[in-house]
């Protein structure tokens, strides 16, 4: 609106000044004032208005174009920043989940800190609930899109999981095996010794095989090894049996593990 008012004012001013100039020129040339011709009228009143209007439209169009380009650049920058925010959020989530999964798959950690696999413990239960909160926030992000609201919800869920996990980790390290009775702690001590033999790499195949049997027997009724932990343990056992210079080859040594013989 302001641009149109300025344009109209400028056009009128140019018209008046132009008309006056033409009249002065006519008086100077002919010595008398006369009526303006159609050409003079067009040149004085129409041309300046068209010129000023065109310049104004070009200026307004250029400003609108710059605004659109700036808005597009801002949208691209916002999208890139949002994508980077999601990437960092997922990296942080994955790092925490990997740290948590070690307590569910690393037999040594399961023996040293058995409370981390006691899902009836309220502190550990909070970790499970926080993990479910992450899954819920991720599902909502898939359904509704990865907008700022969904990112904020997932960020809060990851925060809750981190707090719950760190709390449980400190709690487990403080408790150690203190929640177990003397008999259970004795069995876990035997299991730890057997695990050290399996991981040592210097034991004979017979010692490794006996250690595997002792480990599984000692943990029975105290720690229920998940399938992944069993698979990792058997892989270590096969490796210890297969690479040892004494005894059988890798194929026959692998067949000597209790799991393979049972199969």
Please give a structural write-up.
- With 263 residues, the protein is an all-alpha fold.
- The chain folds into 3 domains: 2-79; 106-175; 182-262.
- The chain has 10 helices and no strands.
- The chain has helices spanning 2-30, 38-105, 107-112, 122-144, 148-175, 182-200, 205-219, 227-243, 250-254, 258-262.
- The longest helix has 68 residues, at 38-105.
- The radius of gyration is 41 Å and the shape is rod-shaped.
- The N and C termini lie far apart (87 Å).
Assembly level: single chain
CA(first)-CA(last) distance: 87 Å
- The radius of gyration is 41 Å
Spatial shape: rod-shaped
Query: What is the string of helix and strand elements?
Result: HHHHHHHHHH
Helical content (DSSP H or I, runs of 4+): over 70%
On the 0 to 100 scale, the average pLDDT is 78
Say how many strands there are: 0
Q: Describe the biggest sheet?
A: none
Low-pLDDT segments, ≥5 res: 243-263
What is the number of independent domains?
3
Separate helix tally: 10
Strand content: under 5%
Query: What structural class do the secondary elements suggest?
Result: mainly alpha
Transmembrane segments: 34-60
Keywords: Membrane, Transmembrane, Transmembrane helix
Biased composition (Low complexity): 248-263
Region (Disordered): 239-263
């Amino acid at each position: 609106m302001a641009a149109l008012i300025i344009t109209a004012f400028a056009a009128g001013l140019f018209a008046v000044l132009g008309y006056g100039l033409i009249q002065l020129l006519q008086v100077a040339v002919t010595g008398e004032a006369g009526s303006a011709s159609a050409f003079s009228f067009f040149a004085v009143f129409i041309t300046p208005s068209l010129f000023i209007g065109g310049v104004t439209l070009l200026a307004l169009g250029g400003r609108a174009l710059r605004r659109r380009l700036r808005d597009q650049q801002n949208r691209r920058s916002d999208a890139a920043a949002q994508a980077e925010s999601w990437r960092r959020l997922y990296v942080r989530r994955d790092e925490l989940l990997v740290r948590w999964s070690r307590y569910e798959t690393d037999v040594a950690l399961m023996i040293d800190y058995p409370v981390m696999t006691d899902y009836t413990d309220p502190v550990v239960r909070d970790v499970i609930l926080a993990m479910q909160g992450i899954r819920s926030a991720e599902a909502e992000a898939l359904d509704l899109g990865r907008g700022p609201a969904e990112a904020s919800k997932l960020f809060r869920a990851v925060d809750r999981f981190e707090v719950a996990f760190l709390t449980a980790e400190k709690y487990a390290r403080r408790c150690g095996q203190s929640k177990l009775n003397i008999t259970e702690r004795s069995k876990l001590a035997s299991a730890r010794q057997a695990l050290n033999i399996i991981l040592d790499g210097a034991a004979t195949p017979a010692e490794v095989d006996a250690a595997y049997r002792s480990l599984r027997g000692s943990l029975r009724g105290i720690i229920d090894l998940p399938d992944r932990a069993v698979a990792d343990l058997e892989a270590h056992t096969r490796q210890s049996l297969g690479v040892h210079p004494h005894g059988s080859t890798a194929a026959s040594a692998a067949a000597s593990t209790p799991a393979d013989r049972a199969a």
